[in-house]
Amino acid sequence: MPSRELLALTARAAYRGLHHPRRYLSGWLFSEAASATVAAHLTAMCRIPDAKRAFSFYPVYEPVRLELLAATFKQVEHGPWWPINDWLFLSSGGRLAHLKGQSGQRHALPEPAQRIQEDVALIERVLAVWRVLRAASEDARQCQIPPFAAVRVSNHIDDARALGLSAEEDITVFALHHLCIHPRLNTVAAVRNMVDAAVNDHRPLAPMLTRYSEEHWCRLIDPLPRNERRL
Q: Organism's domain of life (predicted)?
């Protein structure tokens, strides 16, 4: 077991990394297996197949990638963590997350795993902007992004594509408005009309959304569940 001093030092480094473009401390692994076995397992984990069984390499030991990989499993314990007994890391929301490895039957990676890993650069871009917006909030409760924020961002990116958006800027703006105003914003008729215009008329989405003031947004989302409101 590492010393308390070393754990404290690495914990401080991990928290500082949350606000940097790239984290240099991925987490803490605890395993009774030999280091060579753990290294080989990590390398194998990083090789993820697409629908045609062609493998690509993704550094899934990085915190955001690991969080997203774990979220693809309906039961997180079915993930490919073993022979790592315990895997601790800071989630995208800055909370300590824990994955526990279990020996036994291996479970196949869920179908979305490779697609979501491909989206990580876009997800991290949205997270970075979201952090800046939340940090500027006058409400102390709103200053931190929530636990497992990357999963929320990924879900909104999927929703944007399902509605036909394909331009990265449109997807980013769509996700940020859902994160900062209401997660069901796309059910509002005015928003759907703007998304349809962006898709069908090849117009950028951002200028259409910025026409609305905070007061106007509050009126638009008034029928939606109040406990999910961000304004």
A: Bacteria
**pLDDT per position as a tens digit, 3-49:** 788 778 888 888 787 777 777 788 899 999 999 999 999 999 999 99
Residue 114 has φ and ψ, to the nearest 5°, of -70, -40
Q: What is the DSSP letter of 62?
A: S
| This prediction's pTM | 0.89
| Number of domains comprising the chain | 2
Question: Within this chain, do residues 166 and 210 fall inside the same structural domain, yes or no?
Answer: yes
Alpha-carbon gap, residue 132 to 128, rounded angstroms: 7
> Domain residues for 68?
4-108
- The β-bridge relationship of strands 86-90 and 28-30 is antiparallel
Instruction: Assign 107 to helix, strand or coil.
Output: coil
Task: Kindly state the tokens that stand for 147.
Answer: 């636990």
- List, for residues 55-102, the tens digit of each pLDDT value: 999 999 999 999 999 999 999 999 999 999 999 999 998 888 999 998
Same domain, yes or no, for 160 and 220? yes
Contact status, residue 103 vs residue 83, Cβ threshold 8 Å:
yes
Does one domain contain both 125 and 193? yes
